[in-house]
Amino acid sequence: MKAAVVHGPDQHPIYDDFDDPIAADGYRLVDLVAAGVHPVVRASAAGRHYTSTGDYPLIPGVDAVARTSDGTLIYTGFTPAPYGTLAERMAVPASMQLALPNGANAAQVAGGLNPGLSSWMPLTARAAERGDAGLGTVLILGVTGMAGLLAAQNAAALGAMRVVGAGRNPSGLERAAAHGALPVALSGDRDADSAAISDALDGTAPSIVLDFVWGRPAEATFAALGRTGIHEDTADISYIEIGSLAGADAAVPASLLRSRHIRLSGSGAGSTSIADIMTQLPVYMEMIAAGTVTVPTRSFPLSRIADAWTAAADSGSRVVVVPG
Questions:
Q1: What is the pLDDT of residue 270?
Q2: pLDDT value of position 315
Q3: pLDDT for 85
């Protein structure tokens, strides 16, 4: 079969021949309809993500919309290495085959579920924790990327009182503002960015911070969230680290952890239970199908995987690979 094939670390995929997958017990062969080229797909293929196996050659891709032998469109993933979803065919587990809702756009589902769930999971958990208090203020670092844009929409759909979105890309900030987020332009200067975030929060502590970038923006946020005095903190902040596009490390001030009611944790493959993900996948597919969240996409045929891979480096529409 034809597939996108990566032959070594930090190499771009090429359109190449690869052995057909074999469906072991509990697996099923399905045909590609659409698969997203997400940041995790690129990082894992390059060997720079904690999910990377380091074994080459491989087919990248973590999820897809596929067609079964009876014509049913399903959302699926969890293909066994070295196989991924950027291929004409894939073998997928029976436990990971969810029929698309009526009217769902396959490209939007393939492009939106991975980035959308990255914030939907922690947001729904936080909303459940807070009950009648609601989400209050939500702060998003990296709102200019697709995951950040969907996070702004997700927070609004869950009734957030206010959404503050920080990032560096002007057009990305405009997109987030169009969905109701208060945009905060970051410069890369920690002190200036801390002041900008603090001004946007206007004295209100966020109930949840969704951090898609880490690095210096995280450090600027830690500074913005700092406080002085010995009176008890009335805030309750959940800081969720999701991505590290701005750097793998960030220094956390000890004083922040001692002076505030703040929990610092991560959300990603391994830390989020598969059972919880499987519960929320149909919910989020329905939101995409209903237009509750919108997923801008650009489609490329599999034969143009080199162009798709390059285009996916931009932070605008999610690149989706389709047959052809």
A1: 80
A2: 73
A3: 98
The two beta strands, 237-241 and 208-211, are parallel
d(CA 289, CA 193): 37
Res 97: pLDDT: 94
For residue range 290-313, list pLDDT tens digits in order.
999 999 999 999 999 999 999 998
Cis peptide before 57 (omega within 30 of 0): yes
Kindly state the DSSP code that residue 144 receives in the 8-state scheme. T
Among 290, 304, 302, 309, CA closest to 108: 290
pLDDT confidence of residue 48: 83
Residue 71: alpha-carbon gap to chain centroid: 29
Segments of the chain with pLDDT less than 50? none
Q: Which of 144, 153, 120, 127 is nearest to 238 (CA)?
A: 127
The amino acid present at 287, given as its one-letter code, is: M
> 92 forms bridges with which residues in the sheet?
28
Could you give the CA distance from residue 79 to residue 95 in angstroms, rounded to a whole number?
12
Beta-strand pair 137-141/162-167: parallel
**Residue 324: strand, helix, or coil:** coil
Is residue 34 within 8 Å of 65, Cβ to Cβ?
yes
Q: Give yes or no for a cis peptide into 82 (omega within 30° of 0).
A: yes
Residue listed under structure tokens 């969810």: 98
Cis peptide before 323 (omega within 30 of 0): no
- Alpha-carbon distance of 289 to 3, in angstroms, equals 28
Residue ranges of domains in the chain, CATH in brackets:
2-99+294-322 (3.90.180.10), 113-266 (3.40.50.720)
DSSP 164-201: EEEES-HHHHHHHHHTT-EEEE--S-HHHHHHHHHHHH
For residue 251, the SS3 value is coil
Tokens (6 digits) for 37: 């080229």
Distance CA 14, CA 309 (A): 10
Taking a C-beta distance cutoff of 8 angstroms, is the pair 50, 62 a contact?
no
Instruction: State how far the Cα of 115 lies from the Cα of 152, in Å rounded to an integer.
Output: 12
Q: What confidence score (pLDDT) does residue 273 get?
A: 85
